[in-house]
Write a structure and sequence with these properties.
three-stranded antiparallel beta sheet; four-stranded parallel beta sheet; RNA-binding; 16 strands; single chain; globular; 52% helix; Isoleucyl-tRNA Synthetase, Domain 1; Gyrase A, domain 2
Length: 665
RNA sequence: GCGCCCGUAGCUCAGUUGGAUAGAGCGGCUGGCUUCGAACCAGUAGGUCGGGAGUUCGAAUCUCUCCGGGCGCACCA
């Protein structure tokens, strides 16, 4: 609601500048900025536009501001505009009209939705071990961004890429076969025996670390990896069979882990199909045909197909460090395959996967997985896969350390003349999750002397160094359960546990979202386990309290008023003359603005911050206005309406963050 | 060596794209449950925005430079 007013004011000023001042903003190089005044007493909105115009119009900002206010005239919903300071235009809204519009559920201006499809790829965990805290940051960030885009009206497809034929899977297979002398049947038995106390993904976590260490101690054993990779690629033999067993089982583990946090996918494109359907071959032809890569005849890259560095670096340091795309032995590198995959996402490869149903979520939503062969024609209609890929915008949620490779992929598109798609390939990067030294101590991890001096230590699957996602969630649930039990001892244990789970997941999601993407999270149990202050549970608690007031009203035998008939615009104006109530309503009506800004900046953290502000504001409201015992009827009805409005706004915001609201706290 | 990111209160972090007196949480101190549940609220202390120079009406924000920290720069993924 607030957001549509903002845009209305913006366009009024824009039009006025064009018509009466001859200023075209797109030419002038700036747009009308609307900000929140430093002090609430200044007004509801502030425009510093006069400052920006001062130079080109060669007039004092104060005078420009005055002329501008005069020229703009009246704007619906705006009560007054005043000049302040050196030339600020402070806007005061028509409170009664604002409240009335909110009450009637006035049209929330939905930004003209992009008609095309957006792909967001996230999670992408190598299917060879349990997920850890770093993977959670990726998935929560990606999932939240998806929710943001969908709320804004965009069509979004969520992809989770599965590298089931890579080195990491091979290393676990090496561990099973060469170190533990297990057969595929043995591994299948381990998978079947998977339970809380013998988790297959945890077992692989340890085995992977052990294999990595073994390579270090016995470098000759790396030949096992090469042999395994070779057989996996060829697609037959015991090692290949085992790789399939491991990868498929671990993918199921990951999906289950992520579902605990409400994270879902539409499709799982797999590396094995990229190989079998020869995606690379098509891409290779295209790259050669359009001269995006060339065959190196000399130097250290002799015999390789390379992309010149000028394609992905500044032109100044051309000829330096070209990127090898195809090795001298004829095998394509990871980046090469990634270019093919990126082309597929845009529907530019001229090839597609086949698909089959993988799993269904409890509500029936289907996850699809790629296959190399068409589904049989007897398949039922519900087995018909939707059209995947063919996006016009692609977000790849990948940590910042892969920036260089993402640049090469985009350069590949550009070199193929897919300029627009290159422009719309967005590396949604984020910093890593590291472990604080104290956290390592908590985990009983011994650090080398130099590591101990560092501000934080990088998580490493290879070293088995990290906090497993499910362990962390379990720990959070236990902690939350303690809090719940102390307040609701009389309640059935199952309900207590369900509530504790929602609180724990809310805490975890919020914790991972409150940091901006460029911030390294030095993970700390104490902070992550906190339920007070700027946390998910704080926001959930505010929502539960708002609901409780309305519930209490009915428990006392009072009906919820019919706000439409009891609250006229006049009574809204009367009630909103109360400065505190007005300021609180303003904050509560800014979900749209907050979402818009968070999408524009690509920072889910901004929305998380707003959720906290909203909850804080409600807590103040709760404290300041006793509602149920309010003697004045009009005021009571108004306060009840505010309470409901707060509850809805809190629920909306939390839903976008993927945080649920427990029945009680 | 080159590139990217970070440096803001004791600690952990925001800062609406250059705007008004730099904010929040935690921790510290003081106070508030016989009220719609205190996982809450109110008050208070705490700042050369890493240092320096520049750009302009105006800089935590942009430029340069120095200092400190992190991450990249494979015929690995």
């Amino acid at each position: 609601m607030f957001h549509s007013l903002e845009t209305r004011i913006q366009s009024a000023f824009r039009a006025c500048l064009a018509d009466k001042f001859g200023v075209q903003l797109d030419i002038a190089g700036f747009d009308i900025v609307i900000e929140q005044p430093k002090q609430t007493s200044f007004g509801d909105l502030a425009l510093p536009v006069a400052f920006q115009l001062a130079k080109s119009l060669k007039q004092a900002p104060r005078k420009i501001a005055a002329d501008l206010v005069e020229a703009v005239g009246t704007i619906p919903g705006v009560a007054a505009m005043e000049i302040a300071g050196n030339g600020y235009i402070n806007v005061r809204l028509d409170r009664g009209a604002f409240g009335a519009a909110l009450l009637s559920g006035g049209p929330e201006a939905v930004a003209a939705a992009d008609p095309g499809k957006t792909i967001v790829e996230h999670t992408n965990i190598n299917p060879n071990k349990a997920a850890h805290i770093g993977h959670l940051r990726n998935a929560v960030l990606g999932d939240t961004f998806v929710r943001m885009l969908r709320t804004a009206g965009r069509t979004v497809e969520v992809q989770n890429y599965i590298d089931n034929t890579g080195v990491q899977v091979a290393d676990v297979v090496v561990g099973f076969h060469f170190l533990e002398h297990k057969t595929p049947a043995d591994v299948a038995a381990l998978i079947a025996a998977d339970s809380k106390h013998a988790r297959f993904d945890y077992l692989c976590w340890d085995l992977y670390a052990r294999t990595s260490q073994y390579y270090k101690d016995n470098p000759d054993s790396l030949a096992w990896r090469a042999q395994t990779l070779h057989e996996v690629e060829a697609g037959h033999g015991e090692l290949a069979e085992m790789a399939h067993l491991v990868a498929d089982a671990i993918v199921d583990c990951h999906l289950a882990t992520m579902l605990r946090l409400g994270i879902r996918y539409n499709v799982l494109p797999r590396e094995s199909e990229i190989l079998h359907l020869k995606f690379w071959a098509s891409c290779f032809e295209l790259l050669k045909e359009r001269k995006a890569i060339y065959f190196e005849e000399e130097g250290k890259n002799k015999g390789c197909w390379v992309m010149p560095s000028s394609a992905f670096r500044g032109a100044d340091e051309a000829n330096e460090d070209s990127k090898v795309i195809v090795r001298s032995n004829g095998i394509v590198t990871y980046v090469g395959k990634d270019i093919a995959y990126q082309l597929w996402k845009f529907g530019l490869l001229g090839k597609d996967f086949f698909y089959k149903p993988h799993t269904a979520y409890p509500d029936g939503q289907q996850v699809w997985v790629s296959t190399a062969t068409p589904q049989s024609e007897t398949s039922q209609i519900e087995n018909q896969a939707p059209a995947f890929g063919k996006a016009d915008t692609v977000y790849n949620v990948i940590d910042v350390r892969q920036s260089y490779l993402q640049d090469v992929v985009v350069a590949g598109l550009r070199a193929l003349d897919f300029e627009q798609q290159a422009e719309r390939s967005i590396h949604f990067s984020y910093e890593m999750v590291a472990l604080s030294p104290r956290c390592c101590a908590d985990l009983g991890i011994e650090l080398s002397e130099e590591d101990a001096k560092r501000p934080y230590v990088e998580v490493s699957g290879r070293k088995g160094l990290g906090v497993k996602a499910d362990d962390l969630m379990d720990k959070l649930i236990e902690s939350a359960l303690g809090e719940v039990a102390s307040r609701h001892a009389e309640d059935p244990v199952e309900t207590q546990r369900a509530v504790a789970t929602e609180i724990a997941m809310g805490a975890l999601r919020y914790f991972l979202l409150k940091f901006t993407r460029t911030t390294v999270i030095a993970f700390d149990f104490q902070e992550a386990l906190s339920f007070v202050g700027e946390t998910g549970p704080y926001v959930q608690y505010a929502t539960v309290r708002a609901r409780n007031i309305l519930k209490k009203l009915q428990e006392r035998g009072e009906a919820l008023p019919d706000f439409g008939t009891e609250l006229s615009a006049e009574s809204m104006a009367r009630q909103l003359a109360n400065e505190d109530a007005w300021q609180m309503l303003l904050v509560a009506s800014k979900v749209g603005s907050a979402l818009d800004r968070a999408i524009a900046t690509g920072e889910p953290a901004h929305l998380a911050k707003y959720a906290f502000l909203l909850a804080q504001t409600f807590s103040n409201f709760y404290q300041e206005f006793p509602i149920l015992i309010e003697p004045d009827r009009e005021k009571k009805v108004f306060l009840l309406w505010m309470t409901g409005f707060f509850a809805r706004q809190l629920e909306r915001t939390l839903a976008i963050l993927g945080i649920t609201v427990p029945v009680y706290m």
